[in-house]
Each structure stands twice: as C-alpha cells, then as structure tokens.
Design brief:
By secondary structure, the protein is mainly alpha-helical. 80% of the residues lie in helices and 0% in strands. It is built from five helices and no strands. Helix 2 crosses helix 5. The chain is elongated, with a radius of gyration of 15 Å.
Length: 104
C-alpha cells in the first residue's frame, strides 16, 4: 500500500505545504479505490457462503495497510501542494479515475 501511495505523489514537483486535511482525504480515497479494485473481484469469485468472512478479512487488511501508509502519503501530498490534484483524487469514484489524477 505504501508503494501505491508513493506513486500517487512521486510525480508531483511543486513546492509549499498543502492542506493536511485535504491531503488526508485524497490519500484515503486513493488507497480505498485502489485496494478495493483488486479485493472486490477476489471476494466476488469466492463461494457465496465465504464472501462475508472474506470481506471482513479484506477490510481488516485494508485498515492496517491504510494506517501504515497514510501518513507517508499525506506528507508527500503536502509537499507537492497541488490543489487540483488533491481535489481530483478526493472526488474520484473509480480506481481508473483516481489513478489518472495521481499521474497527471
């Protein structure tokens, strides 16, 4: 997860300090959309009687990865200070859209 979040802001080059709260929202949305893009098909492919338990397991995995990587992502976001990108990442509804925000 840390690598995914690093990629989200590695390409940003502007200086300054972005808003911490906006960066936190952008990072969390990015991480969520990217994680569930991969996890949802795995859950859907599981036998129906195992899906709830698998979703619970994936949710715990996501929470752990998010909390271990969100501070790093937020610090990179703040350093980049790119309001347009933060807004794009916060408002994205799909993994494809949020990834496009991070690489533009």
């Amino acid at each position: 997860m840390r690598q995914v979040m690093f990629v989200a802001f590695a390409l940003l080059a502007s200086c300054g300090r972005g808003d911490q709260q906006k960066c936190d929202l952008a990072c969390r949305n990015y991480a969520s959309l990217m994680f569930w893009k991969d996890a949802d098909p795995i859950i859907a492919a599981a036998p129906e009687d195992q899906r709830a338990a698998l979703r619970k397991q994936k949710l715990a995995e996501f929470a752990s990865k998010l909390e271990n990587g969100v501070d790093f992502c937020v610090s990179k976001c703040q350093a980049a200070n790119n309001d347009g990108q933060m807004k794009c990442m916060t408002e994205a509804k799909t993994a494809k859209a949020v990834k496009a925000c991070a690489t533009d």
